[in-house]
Amino acid sequence: MTRQLFLFEARRLARHPLVWGASALVLALQTYLSRGQQPHWGVDPVHATGLSTCLAAAVLIVAALAVSRDGRHGMPETLAGLPGRAGHRTRAILLATPLVAGLASAVAVGGYLLVRLAAGPAAGRLDVWEPLTAVAAAMLAATLGVAIGRWVRRLIAGPMVVAVLGYLIYMNPVNGPLRWLLPVMQDHHADWPDRPSGTHLVYVLALVVVFAGVALLRHRTRLMPAAAVVAALAVAVPAGAATAAEPPVLRPRVGMLGPETVDPRVFERYFGPAAHRCSDRQGVTYCAYPGYEPWIPLWEQAVLPAADVLPAALRARLPRVEQTPLTWYYGHDGASPFQAPMTWGHPDQRAMLAQSVGLWATGLLKALALAGTGGDAHGQARMVLALWITGQVSVPEPPRPLYADVRFGRQMMVGWGPAEVAYAKLMLATPGVRDKVSAHWDTLTHPATTIDQALPLLGLNRTQATPPGPTPCR
Fold first, then answer.
1. In a domain, 168, yes or no
2. Structural domain range at position 192
3. Distance between CA 257 and CA 263 in Å, rounded?
4. Of 213, 261, 328, 380, which is most buried with the most CB atoms under 10 A?
């Protein structure tokens, strides 16, 4: 009897439009949200697991409605004459719903990871427990839905539980030490410490068994379901306590920042003596963290065009491009001025690296460091030159915060205006400018050289006024 009911419920749920509609929504929406970003195996599975709660919500509601079906619209009287009892139907639904829910979640999350794999070079370390947690969360939603449907015979019960859990998961980052007691913890960034994902997966799987046993105990108290609940709780309680004991990320606080304030769980990984793996490509050194080497050619596309327009002697002294965790930017004092972030793909990140090359080559970066505050480069020839170097990769534009990483923007503390941008674009459109720049490099990069003085050297006509700023860089 249970076998036939299981096959019936499995076929019914496998054809349910809400389940596969939610699965398609998770796949499509997560693919859209990650557009333009290179695949990151440390972050993408976490984000997919977080969004898969939409599928889990649909599964919970469908499971609650399925198991409570025999208590609505005169069904108790109709089913009373059949050989199968409510317990058989509960067992059948408990077998069918986690199976189909787990399959739907695997299709959504696995499909997303395959899409990301095809999107380009992937970096970071894959935590295999994260996508499995998405599958386990869907199975947990299935057994929880069955338990709710059996114990609370109200159609609104399932949606209400979904609303409460959805709110708690959405607000999860501010839940303190209890954040890991929810099925999903979706707040994570590329340079954060490793997550206790393996222990958390055990905790979620134990809850699957707990709610399955609770659903079966609704009919009558039996030894096997009760023992299963006790055994599952014996696993879930210590596993949940272990994950809840995981300390939160020690984010920067107001005050003096230095290596001693970096979260000790990541210090050796990012600032230890063997933290970076370095390689030389066409005279430029690129240093990436282990697992991020596939992105070095992408960084090269942002650095090499800008480096190639520099005089040969200056290009030979180009600092190395060094990957830097922006959360812990204060971890050491000897960081390279060319900093590659922990994620990649946004056009601003390319512009940021090219801009760093331009400001370093023209001496503006050094001037800002010596001043210790922002400076004004209006009217200075070297500012136009820096924008022209940046323009080999990204269109020159007025100063603005650039997207550096998921939670960080970066703006160089130097000012310039529309006139400098216009002359940089004119240089990019004028043939033969590169040779003239090389011939007059020392003059063009001198702090005292104005744009008006540089125009004849570059063979350009004066089209705009370029008054100096009130606090010029020196």
1. yes
2. 2-244
3. 12
4. 380
